[in-house]
């Protein structure tokens, strides 16, 4: 996932991979490359254009990646499409009554099958 934003006429780019790799670029120059598996993190870069902070907060209930310039919020969400996918996935995860009934029938059938096989082997 890539996101970029303007910092007083220069581009700041964030590149995250799903495997934990993070790369931070300012004006085309790689500032930092690292592996990170933290769910909450704040990374600060001191540049000629000011102090840039990237704040990441990930949890099952919320997802947020924000950018600050000199302690002022400049980007509300670096990856809005990904955040929307996560929130849409949470909405569709709920199981309907018919889905729960089908699940219960499946588990009952598997239990009976296992018990029959167990009795036959015994």
From TrEMBL:
Transmembrane segment boundaries: 100-121
Q: Which UniProt keywords apply?
A: Membrane, Transmembrane, Transmembrane helix
Its domain of life? Bacteria
Name of the featured protein? Uncharacterized protein
Instruction: Give the source species.
Output: Colwellia asteriadis
């Amino acid at each position: 996932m890539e996101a970029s934003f303007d910092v007083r006429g220069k581009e700041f780019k964030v590149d995250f991979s799903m495997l934990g790799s993070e790369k931070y670029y300012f004006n085309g120059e790689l500032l930092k490359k690292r592996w990170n598996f933290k769910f909450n993190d704040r990374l600060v870069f001191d540049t000629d254009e000011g102090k840039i902070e990237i704040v990441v907060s990930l949890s099952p209930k919320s997802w947020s990646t924000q950018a600050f310039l000199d302690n002022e919020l400049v980007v509300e969400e670096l990856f809005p499409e990904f955040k929307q996918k996560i929130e849409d996935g949470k909405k569709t995860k709920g199981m309907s009554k018919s889905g729960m009934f089908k699940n219960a029938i499946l588990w009952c059938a598997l239990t009976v099958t296992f018990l029959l096989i167990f009795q036959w082997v015994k």
